[in-house]
């Protein structure tokens, strides 16, 4: 095996380097900023340097941590771990100077660190500016280490106490550029790793078979990285697949079960009664793309290109435009229409539990637990009238057993699953999933999960709905019982995942935490990510209702899902003109990637421009 290469910077008297064990599998390069002559004047430095050299370590002097690649040949630049204990510009340098030092240091590290390498930075209590500091300094008075590191593409992956008393022979030095110790009580070691780069996706054309024809459509840009991810494939170890497999296995013991996943179209044609149009991703065949009569007759129109319409408004203008449009589609917001189609088919057998699963797409407001795409699982069964309640009881009981079985492998917090009768008042108190399901068709019961974790903002959440409906194609002796589950939300609550975006991360450190077929309590690999807050205010077009879901969708798209929250902070009516002004606070924050202040500013500027162009607002 290749030797692990460790680089130590700013060593001062080299006591920390000397304290490291002489592991035969580790190659150590210990450096300091001062010259050999200056270092030799410090207590025990000469002795420590001698010990290091006897162990085969390389000792270097006058090394500037902001220009690391200059000191090593290309073949010797790859370090697995870089240590920098108590960096400081010297003398009475303030927080701004020390932030600049760290910024240059991290950019320099990016040139000499391996892809899987770590950077360890020890700081005095309060300097880092993270919640791990106790007490925590005000942000402007700290070194803002996480934001500074993000500028060079690094994320904070761990924080540990720096226990100097456990490091044999270690003596901190360099206070105000003297051979004196810093106050290191409560000091913290910050461990950084490389982040995945911010992704900018090209437009995607998706091609599917629909009504015996080949249909191509442009995927909404905000969903480009969410299409065809394969989380529900047979060999997937993604948490949503684990939840699906457990539910299928347990329910198959109680019902004859038939899974129908292979023929479910991504597109749905027609109107969904009761569903707000602003929650739908519309796909419309543009008039200029409509095939001519000659093309239709010759069969040359078998490939039709559909375009994505960002914001559909149900107005007279759209109705008139609709006369020119052949057909209108949307990305499926639910699998329930697919289930209803199977119910109406001759192959539908009462008593069999039909199972449908796959991703569904819904525009929604930005929040940690509201998802524009998630994996839905729908169960449908026809039972004899009068037995529907016992069927519901058995179905819910098996779903509960499945979830509790998965929870046994996740330790750390209690879990309660309850069935709530649907009432008008409850739908407003539940989540976006429950509200949309209530619009889609009448709901009899909400299936809710309650978790008791110290840091979870989502203590109780609706994860499923139960419905009953008459079986219209047969005698009145049968009733249809159906259940719709949000697999993503179940997985989040079971694993303690605080942000839906983490389920879709491309960082391999996420899936590595989940063995095949098992769930684990998720440990974030990006701690205390920096948040950058920007306000945007504008005049709304006269006579129009502002589409907040459209605004949130624009923010998602231009930032690549880097917006954590949007809050309305001010609304103003100008009495003289009747105009309305809105002011929103937008917080840019990534849950899995390094996001720098400069990148957040660029996203804010692009968001402003897109709002003006696509929602026709007048920026203030």
TrEMBL record:
<dbReference type="Pfam" id="PF10354">
    <property type="entry name" value="BMT5-like"/>
</dbReference>
<comment type="similarity">
    <text>Belongs to the class-II aminoacyl-tRNA synthetase family.</text>
</comment>
<keyword id="KW-0648">Protein biosynthesis</keyword>
<dbReference type="Pfam" id="PF03147">
    <property type="entry name" value="FDX-ACB"/>
</dbReference>
<dbReference type="InterPro" id="IPR005121">
    <property type="entry name" value="Fdx_antiC-bd"/>
</dbReference>
<dbReference type="GO" id="GO:0005759">
    <property type="term" value="C:mitochondrial matrix"/>
</dbReference>
<dbReference type="GO" id="GO:0070475">
    <property type="term" value="P:rRNA base methylation"/>
</dbReference>
<dbReference type="GO" id="GO:0070042">
    <property type="term" value="F:rRNA (uridine-N3-)-methyltransferase activity"/>
</dbReference>
<protein>
    <recommendedName>
        <fullName>phenylalanine--tRNA ligase</fullName>
        <ecNumber>6.1.1.20</ecNumber>
    </recommendedName>
</protein>
<dbReference type="GO" id="GO:0005524">
    <property type="term" value="F:ATP binding"/>
</dbReference>
<dbReference type="GO" id="GO:0006412">
    <property type="term" value="P:translation"/>
</dbReference>
<keyword id="KW-0030">Aminoacyl-tRNA synthetase</keyword>
<feature type="domain" description="FDX-ACB">
    <location>
        <begin position="527"/>
        <end position="620"/>
    </location>
</feature>
<dbReference type="InterPro" id="IPR045864">
    <property type="entry name" value="aa-tRNA-synth_II/BPL/LPL"/>
</dbReference>
<keyword id="KW-0809">Transit peptide</keyword>
<keyword id="KW-0496">Mitochondrion</keyword>
<dbReference type="InterPro" id="IPR019446">
    <property type="entry name" value="BMT5-like"/>
</dbReference>
<keyword id="KW-0547">Nucleotide-binding</keyword>
<dbReference type="InterPro" id="IPR029063">
    <property type="entry name" value="SAM-dependent_MTases_sf"/>
</dbReference>
<dbReference type="GO" id="GO:0004826">
    <property type="term" value="F:phenylalanine-tRNA ligase activity"/>
</dbReference>
<keyword id="KW-0436">Ligase</keyword>
<keyword id="KW-0067">ATP-binding</keyword>
<dbReference type="InterPro" id="IPR036690">
    <property type="entry name" value="Fdx_antiC-bd_sf"/>
</dbReference>
